[in-house]
Amino acid sequence: MDVLRGMLSSEKNNIINWIRGYFRNNADNDTKAVIGISGGKDSTIAAALCVAALGKERVAGVLMPQGKQSDIDVSYAVCRHLGIEHSEININKAVQGLYAAIPFNINDVATMNTPARIRMATLYAIAAAVNGRVVNTCNASEIYVGWGTKFGDNVGDFSPLAEFTVTEVKAIGYELGLPVEFVEKLPIDGLCGKSDESALGFSYEILDKYIKTGVCENIDIKERIEMLHRQSAHKRNPIPTYRREV
After folding, report:
1. pTM (global) more than 0.90
2. By CB distance 3.0 to 4.6 Å, which of 90, 110, 147, 188 could disulfide with 142?
3. CA pair distance 73, 10, nearest whole angstrom
4. If pLDDT is split at 50, 70 and 90, which confidence band does 60 have?
5. Residue 91 and residue 96: Cα distance in Å, rounded?
6. CATH assignment at residue 34
């Protein structure tokens, strides 16, 4: 990790400068970065990068539990550590109200993905109210295997971490001086109730190595990674669009 941190020290500064450039070209001096603070490493590190780039007064954290969130204390701790303004909006009534209005049986796919889409709608509503831009917090490892909700947590106005694997994101977190408990927090997707790695069936360390080298000693895991990558292509590709003949 120490070697990787050294390699990514300049990247940290490059990301900070890139964020400044994005806001310089796509916003004004009062525009805020609006970010969902889940308590996980990605939102924490993305928020820390925005604070470094813009100042804490231009970062707005949004906590969006669905009912009771067992680790929401971590989300509050992140906001206090970064010194950013924050608000809590419980999305449970919106989620349940939508389910009640839909005249079909709500299956597991809907219950796993709908909350993420409501969270994104919430972020954009707040961004509109405070003159903000929504931060996408996805990393390259999640993107590779489609570990995100289409039109939910995989969208945003700008994306500072999408080029970096989980291992690299953590190294950037340490370069930012974040506490180890934030950087190393067990990743939980908040959708199926399991940790990311438990639900995926492999560790991010294995996935990151495969992404970087194409090597995975376990054939079953390699096949699963490749299957998830194939099946999630629709999440990475632009929406198919019919083109008129001239």
Report:
1. yes
2. 147
3. 32
4. very high
5. 9
6. 3.40.50.620
- DSSP string over 150-192: TTTTT--SB-SSTTS-HHHHHHHHHHTT--HHHHTPPPB-SSS
Residue 124 resides in a domain:
yes
Structural contact between residues 153 and 119, judged by C-beta atoms closer than 8 angstroms: yes
Give the range of the structural domain holding residue 169, as residue numbers without chain letter. 2-236
Cα separation, 237 vs 68, whole angstroms: 34
Crossing angle between the packed helical segments 166-175 and 204-213, to the nearest 10 degrees: 100
pLDDT digits over 193-206, tens only?
Answer: 678 888 999 999 99
Asked, for residue 26, whether it belongs to a domain, the answer is: yes
Domain count of the chain?
A: 1
Q: Cα(222)–Cα(19) distance, rounded to whole angstroms?
A: 35
Asked, for residue 241, whether it belongs to a domain, the answer is: no
- Please report, for residues 101, 153, 226, the alpha-carbon distance to residue 105 in angstroms, rounded to integers and kept in the order given: 11, 24, 32
Residue 195 phi/psi, 5-degree rounding, is: -70, 155
- List, in order, residues 6 or more apart from 50 with CB less than 8 Å away: 19, 33, 35, 58, 59, 135, 160
In a domain, 243, yes or no: no
- The DSSP line for 31-47 is -EEEEE--SSHHHHHHH
Beta-carbon count within 10 A of 39 CB: 21
Query: What is the distance between the alpha carbons of residues 204 and 167, in angstroms, rounded to a whole number?
Result: 8
194 vs 106, higher pLDDT: 106
Looking at every residue in the chain, the average pLDDT score rounds to: 95
